[in-house]
């Protein structure tokens, strides 16, 4: 299993995890090049809520979705609020939030669907995008997992919701953890660490490490652990192992930029 960042032409780049079947699922992780947005959003900002011109965002979305074989008109997105709300998306929701942030389908942090013809899109710049695919029922889940969502186990809850809606069994699911902030770059305070000690007592030493007086949080490990706990096979979980804070040449990092920057996108669309 591996992550590849491919040059798609015209300075557009897209990341992929090879755990997902290309004949059944379009997926991708955008990079920051090949768009039209000015600094500090330069150049392929994919988010409507950060102060960029919506016309720039629409052009960026149009360019990127086209390169991965989709269409920006089919985007469905949500207003991410660092919670655990999960929304089922239908084909008729295509276009919700594609051009207008207020038109996004819900205040939520995960989307699930078993419909083709709708492109799930989440934005992030350090938080963890978790992609879930059930090949038995041809269903997908796309999760935004910052520290608040991760400690509340939003990825595991999304698996459970897919079971309720589609009959998904965790043992059938393939999962991917996209580019996001690594433990080396993610220092947190004791109030955040205490939440993880309480919620992941058996795995606290894997998730939290102390170095030079600082506490480092491993969101990749925390999301992988919760997926395994609900029944995913270890070898069905892939990870990009790419840090957005370290590689600011290709990725946006909210922390490294001091809060004002563009956003990357994670996209999933069933064929």
Strands of the biggest beta sheet: in what spatial order? 1-2-3-15-7-4
Low-confidence stretches: none
Instruction: Report the strand count.
Output: 15
What structural category arises from helix and sheet content? alpha+beta
Q: What coarse outline follows from CA principal-axis ratios?
A: globular
Main beta-sheet strand count, sense and barrel state: 6 strands, mixed
Query: Mean pLDDT, rounded to whole units?
Result: 97
**Count of individual helical segments:** 6
CATH domain class name: Alpha Beta
- N-to-C SSE series? EEEHEEEEEEHHEEHHEEHEE
Question: Radius of gyration in whole Å, from Cα?
Answer: 17 Å
- Specify the CATH homologous superfamily: CNF1/YfiH-like putative cysteine hydrolases
- Distance from N terminus to C terminus (CA atoms, Å) equals 22 Å
């Amino acid at each position: 299993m591996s992550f590849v960042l491919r040059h798609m032409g015209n300075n557009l780049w897209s990341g992929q995890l090879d755990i997902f079947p290309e004949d059944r699922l379009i997926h991708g992780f955008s990079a920051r090049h090949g768009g039209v947005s000015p600094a500090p959003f330069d150049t392929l900002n994919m988010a409507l809520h950060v102060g960029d011109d919506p016309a720039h965002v629409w052009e960026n979305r149009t360019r990127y979705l086209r390169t991965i074989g989709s269409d920006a008109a089919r985007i469905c997105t949500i207003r991410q609020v660092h919670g655990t709300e999960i929304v089922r998306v239908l084909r008729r929701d295509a276009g919700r939030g594609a051009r207008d942030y207020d038109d996004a389908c819900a205040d939520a942090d995960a989307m699930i669907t078993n419909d083709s013809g709708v492109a799930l899109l989440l934005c992030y710049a350090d938080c963890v995008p978790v992609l879930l695919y059930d090949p038995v029922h041809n269903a997908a889940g796309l999760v935004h997992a910052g520290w608040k969502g991760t400690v509340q186990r939003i990825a595991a809850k999304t698996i459970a919701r897919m079971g309720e809606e589609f009959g998904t069994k965790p043992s059938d699911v393939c999962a991917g953890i996209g580019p996001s902030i690594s433990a080396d770059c993610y220092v947190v305070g004791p109030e955040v660490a205490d939440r993880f000690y309480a919620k992941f007592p058996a795995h606290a030493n894997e998730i939290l490490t102390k170095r030079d007086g600082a506490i480092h949080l491993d969101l990749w490990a925390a999301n992988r652990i919760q997926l395994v706990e609900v029944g995913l096979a270890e070898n069905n979980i892939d990870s990009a192992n790419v840090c957005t804070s370290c590689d600011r040449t290709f990725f946006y990092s909210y922390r490294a930029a001091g809060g004002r920057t563009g956003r990357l996108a994670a996209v999933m669309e069933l064929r």
